[in-house]
Amino acid sequence: MGRPKRVTIRDVAKAAAVSITTVSDALNGKGRLPAATRDRVVAVAAGLGYHASPNARRLRQGRTGAIGLYLPDRASGLDYYMNVALGAADAAFAHDLTLTLMPIRPDARQKISADLLDGLIVVDPMLTDPVLDTLAGLDVPIVSCERDLGSPARFAGVVTADNRAAVHELLGHLARQGATTTGLLGLAGDTAFGSDVRAAYLDWCAARGQPPLISQTPFVDSAESRYQAADQLLHDHPEIDAVVSAPEGGALGILHAAERRGIRVPDDMLIASCVDHSSLWTAKPPITAIDLNPRLMGRYGAELLADLLEGRAEGPVTRALPTRLVERDSTLPRAPR
User: Fold this and answer.
1) How high does pLDDT run on average in the chain?
2) Strands of 66-70's sheet, edge to edge?
3) pTM of the model
4) How do beta strands 288-291 and 324-326 pair?
């Protein structure tokens, strides 16, 4: 059997014995139609099962129906960003929008055009990313998933978590579990997340009179470099009895470095991550982490952009993202030394 024929606005006009313009005005609440005519057209359309075409509506509005998703360079393989993308895709689909993953290329200025997109979602904007200036010049609404430390005014909306509060909660948990000297495997401060984690850790150390013990890695790096940074931290500061990892995957580097040095987790040292992901659930021991709700982050970003495009919101607007601490065996209470 063939596909059923889609009812068109022309079919409604013919059945109601009116013009196509009259049908359009009646269904869109426009024009100066008599109430009886408007009601009759609406009834005929409902009886025929007519549904307005999203594509036709967008053409009248001068829109493409596509939005872009821009991720940090070399981030596509990280669990967090894949979940952000999936959440954004789900929300875009629910709003009849197509989600396009934006390329990260030196010739982006020549390749990216506002004719192709109605709006953009930028995830973890980086101070050092020159493509952001190109995106900001497209004259379309842009939503940021996490704050922009450089030029926040270029974003019509932002979805952000209280990362400092989440890290303070994590550090408090480690202290309650018996940690007395906590180190940080940190991130370069060119994103709001990396800056927030470092600031929260420094505040914590200052409040307790502990010198900061930090080894830092780039925002997106390799597993080998995270391991090397973790191993250097343990080598330089043997007094550490707990380590917090800012980068995704960093906690596993700390765990491997500890095993190499004969440090038992959690008996000798506690480990926790500021970013939860699937590999932490199956690590031995499973590793405590902050759930940053990446799918919800992506969904909030796409929903906020859809609201801006449809006029349901006016920028600048901020939406708060909840986080939660997930306690696992890597931070079981330590016995006093």
Assistant:
1) 87
2) 98-101, 66-70, 119-123, 142-145, 157-161, 317-321
3) 0.80
4) antiparallel
